[in-house]
Amino acid sequence: MKKILFIAFALFSSTFFASTLSAQFISNGKQLGTVGIGGFRSATLIGGQWEIGVGDKVGIGRFGVGALGGLYLTGGDNAFGIGGQANYHFDLNAPRWDLFAGLNFIAIITGGGGSDLGFQFGGRYAVQNNLSILVQLGAGGFASFFAGVSFGL
Predict the structure, then answer these.
(1) DSSP secondary structure string, 107-139?
(2) Where are the transmembrane segments (predicted)?
């Protein structure tokens, strides 16, 4: 099972290396894909996120909306969830950083079902033009903690 998950992760992430990403990438029409691991309550999360910038700059930042989903591994009744997110990305004078805060909604479609609304905040640090490291904290919803690699689409 671990080998299958690793291979799926490698194939999924390698498809995104061809595109470019500036550190503060969220603007109208720009897209981002993220894969990573995290935790929620007693479950380990293997998940992914997709986000696209919408509209022009509002105040000191920009909005992004997208989808998210993942496999929650509990050691017993594993579950799969899908949902959506909306984030506000702060426009900083630090071009390699992208800090954001937002809301998310997750619907568990297997393993007993259910849904949850939560909030998150986090940041990305651009390692290269097409590669950023993501760390995200939250309460409710998708994950309490999520870390991963983001790629411009």
Answers:
(1) EE-STT--EEEEEEEEEEEEEETTEEEEEEEEE
(2) 99-119, 131-151
